[in-house]
Description:
Elements: H1 26-37, E1 44-45, H2 55-66, E2 67-68, E3 76-77, H3 90-100, E4 107-110, H4 113-124, E5 130-135, H5 140-147, E6 151-156, H6 166-172, E7 177-183, H7 195-207, E8 211-215, H8 219-222, E9 237-242, E10 255-258, H9 261-270, H10 280-291, H11 293-320, E11 324-325, E12 334-335, E13 338-339, H12 345-356, E14 358-359, E15 361-362, E16 372-375, H13 380-399
Helix pairs in contact: 2-10, 3-10, 4-5, 4-9, 6-7, 11-13, 12-13
Amino acid sequence: MKSAGTPVGSAPAAQPGGDFFAATHYADWVRGSLHAMATRPNAIALYDSTISEPSRLLAELVAKALVIPSDAGGPRFGSRYVSVFANGNRFLVNALCARYGETPERLQTVTGVTGGLQLILRALVKPGERVLIENPGFKILSNLALEAGAVVDDLERPAPDFGVDPAQVAAQLTPDTRLVILTNPHNPTGTCLDPATLTAVARAAARVGALLVVDEVYGDFSRRPSAGLAAKLAPNIISLSSLTKVFGLFALKCGWMVADPDVLARIRARQPEGDVGVSKLAHAVAAHVLENADTFDRHWQAVMTATTPVLRRHADAMRLDGLIEGAVPASGCLYFPRIVGVADTWALTRHLWNQADLLVAPGDYFGLAGHVRLGYAGDAETLDKGLTRLHAGLRAWRNR
């Protein structure tokens, strides 16, 4: 059980002059690493967990579709620039429904997965009530629950498969449990849960009156969009997703949640102001993006076609050398290998930074020391160089 303010991981004490490896939270570690990398032009980061932003595609779309000439005195915004106050940008909602086979009454737009989860927690969880959240996991999910006053219980997803046992979920549920929160594909490991497992977890949650929230922000990596979202599987499942990870469009702050209309009505009744951070302009652009989704799908598919063989080749070589363990996921852009013989991930990752100008994310930030999280959705050439450094760095660490 966790209480508010519980630090994530066990980072070492800060060093004189500042040390981003002393950061308690992953977000602070990332911020510090970005500052540090600015002073090292040859440094490579392998922790990024999103497709690199398709800036050219986005700029071309904005120039072509959002701003149009006007006879009344210069350019003006196009038809997709509409109010988001009632229930989001209607063009965006319609495009999302067409992509995922949904209907408008089951969908609400938000700023992202974080914004959607905050709405759900504020509306459906009272202080002192319980939320069951996967571990290892993306710790912002637990932190948001703690900030809402919930008691967080860990649902262990054990290595090496990182699956979820519905019977274990059922055993951990209590009459005070309001939510079960999972990521699918799993962050940080990329493991995918099948529909039967999600349905069984939802059924167990329903027996105590709880909802299953599934963060599907990486979902389009592992399924055809027409297959639909997890929310189709049971009336007590809420799906959350955004344009951030697969499309790489974090700048648009555009996400959505999908659920049974009765569930959405409960959330709206208790949080009538909705997600106040939603931008009219950003969601107008997002509507154009989703209406031209094939273009952006081709972008991320080309990136992953280039990078995935590079990751697999290096992972195979490091496994053969006895340096890492763990299969590369079938899809997605995350890999969470165990580093053989390493318990102190802080020392290892600090060593890689200091000796090889290489950044990988310590597994401690996700609840499992001895592992590192790698992202491989950027440039294939840079990935190749970074993984070469990782292989050499792990060999040097073992032989030091």
